[in-house]
């Protein structure tokens, strides 16, 4: 496995030889241009942080640098839309866009809209929201009371927090003495807001994360300056798996105080579960490290035995004491309940963590929508959730099997995901330059297909590494979240790309 580490004054690239920039079109060179950002000198092995919380009156560190790559992409996007880019000033910093935002901006410039049914959108990380067999229909109207015109509590409605706690206790903590209560739950307006709240209450820490992973972690680890981000690339030869021994080695040898990880994993579709997940929690406790687990895809678990269909996957099942174990869980309605537009999510954690988040939330985001929080309460009845999850698993497993089979017919390398609704697709055996994810992405846009280049999951806080050298330059992420007819259109478009380049007949 390629391993690397860096300080503010040194960069050691990872992976094989770089994809030669001269082989890329001007658009792709522009998208890849990354430069080292000057930053404060930090020790890579600063004292690791135990599970501790910032006091509410601590000031948030402001984002100090704007990557040159973002400036180029902003300018490029402005030109594509026929307008001048918005100028920047020294007084205002602009955090870089995520890779998915860049992808959708490029697609929009090529004519994509939500209403255009000629496209196959494999890019956005959202599930289809319509009816699926066996699942209960979601409400199309919301009954409101006048009091819900008021702001809701920054920590979330008490009734919803109680319902979230009940859901976790029923699904994951049956027979355990320690149970969650409303004091263990904070409701937030979406996953990114949840990540910001979590970051705002953690103290100075070496933060470990694994590559590839969710693109928004890059902004999180760039903006909050009390964190020293320490990346670890996962090996393709090891099927991008994180083993307990590997986790222990990373914590001990690299002095990690916090580990951020999506589980199930975006984009690889890997999942840590059962005794292995329990061992992760034990390792964190033994080494005074905090696990921040993004569990948004917890219902998208496939190949379960018949009697276990409808089960989710959560670290809550293996926590001993809900107020002592150093585990912070992030989940919500977005993926498992197929309600991304509601922007209702939650954090489950020890009481003192939630207490600090309440104070931080009034400053950071103000809280989730009052009426939508109220409307979410009946959706969290445990038996309803189980039935919906079982229907979701059957439906998305069928789509997974269809997409994987079609991609393999085209001769493309893809592993069957254990979870999520993503296929992590390798292009390495395709001829140059089609084997580069950015080039493949641009060629797919010409055939009205959207997917995400793999380099955007090479989380790169501070832009300290050149992504020409990314070990994920030969990958793309394909979402099978959309409805089947859109998947079919998208796969037909990919087949046309391959045929155009003489790869597939």
TrEMBL record:
UniProt keyword annotations, A-Z: Aminotransferase, Pyridoxal phosphate, Transferase
The Aminotransferase class I/classII large domain is annotated at 121-493
Q: Which GO terms describe its molecular function?
A: pyridoxal phosphate binding; transaminase activity
Identify the Pfam families for this entry.
Aminotran_1_2
CDD domains for this protein: AAT_like
Q: Which domain of life is it from?
A: Eukaryota
Q: Where is this region: Disordered?
A: 62-93
The cofactors it requires, by name, are:
pyridoxal 5'-phosphate
Any one Gene Ontology BP term: amino acid metabolic process
Family, similarity comment? Belongs to the class-I pyridoxal-phosphate-dependent aminotransferase family.
Supply the name of the protein: Aminotransferase class I/classII large domain-containing protein
Report the source organism.
Geranomyces variabilis
């Amino acid at each position: 496995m390629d391993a690397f580490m860096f300080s503010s004054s040194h960069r050691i690239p990872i992976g094989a030889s770089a994809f030669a920039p001269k082989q890329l079109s001007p658009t792709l060179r522009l998208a890849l241009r990354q430069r080292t950002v000057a930053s404060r000198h930090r020790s890579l092995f600063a004292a690791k942080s135990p599970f501790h919380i910032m006091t509410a009156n601590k000031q948030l560190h402001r984002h100090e640098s704007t990557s040159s790559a973002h400036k180029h992409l902003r300018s490029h996007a402005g030109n594509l839309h026929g307008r001048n880019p918005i100028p920047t000033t020294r007084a205002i910093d602009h955090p870089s866009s995520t890779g998915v935002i860049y992808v959708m901006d490029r697609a929009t410039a090529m004519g994509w809209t939500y209403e255009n049914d000629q496209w196959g959108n494999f890019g956005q990380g959202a599930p289809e929201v319509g009816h699926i067999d066996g699942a209960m229909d979601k409400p199309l109207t919301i009954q409101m009371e006048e009091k819900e015109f008021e702001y809701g509590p920054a920590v979330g409605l008490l009734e919803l927090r109680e319902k979230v706690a009940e859901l976790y206790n029923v699904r994951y903590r049956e027979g355990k003495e320690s149970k969650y209560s409303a004091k263990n739950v904070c409701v937030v307006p979406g996953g990114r807001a949840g990540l910001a709240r979590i970051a705002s209450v953690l103290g100075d820490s070496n933060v470990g994360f694994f590559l590839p992973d969710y693109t928004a972690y890059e902004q999180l680890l760039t903006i909050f300056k009390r964190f020293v981000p320490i990346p670890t690339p996962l090996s393709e030869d090891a099927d991008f798996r994180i083993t307990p021994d590997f986790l222990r080695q990373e914590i001990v040898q690299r002095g990690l105080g916090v580990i951020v990880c999506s589980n199930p994993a975006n984009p690889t579709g890997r999942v840590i579960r059962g005794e292995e997940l329990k061992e992760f929690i034990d390792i964190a406790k033994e080494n005074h490290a905090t696990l921040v687990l993004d569990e948004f895809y917890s219902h998208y678990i496939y190949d379960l035995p018949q009697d276990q269909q409808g089960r989710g996957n959560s670290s809550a099942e293996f926590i001993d004491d809900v107020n002592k174990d150093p585990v912070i869980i992030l989940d919500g309605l977005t993926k498992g309940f197929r309600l991304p537009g509601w922007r209702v999510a939650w954090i489950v954690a020890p009481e003192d963590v939630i207490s600090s988040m309440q104070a931080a939330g009034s400053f950071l985001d103000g809280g989730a929508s009052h009426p939508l929080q109220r409307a979410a309460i009946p959706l969290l009845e445990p038996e309803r959730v189980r039935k919906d999850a079982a229907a979701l698993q059957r439906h998305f497993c069928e789509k997974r099997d269809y997409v994987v089979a079609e991609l393999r017919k085209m001769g493309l390398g893809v592993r069957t995901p254990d979870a999520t609704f993503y296929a992590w697709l390798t292009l390495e055996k395709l001829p140059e330059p089609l084997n580069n994810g950015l080039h493949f992405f641009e060629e797919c846009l010409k055939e009205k297909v959207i997917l995400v280049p793999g380099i955007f999951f090479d989380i790169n806080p501070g832009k300290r590494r050149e992504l020409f050298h990314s070990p994920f330059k030969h990958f793309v992420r394909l979402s099978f979240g959309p409805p089947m007819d859109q998947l079919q259109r998208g796969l037909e478009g990919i087949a046309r790309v391959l045929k155009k380049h003489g790869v597939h007949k």
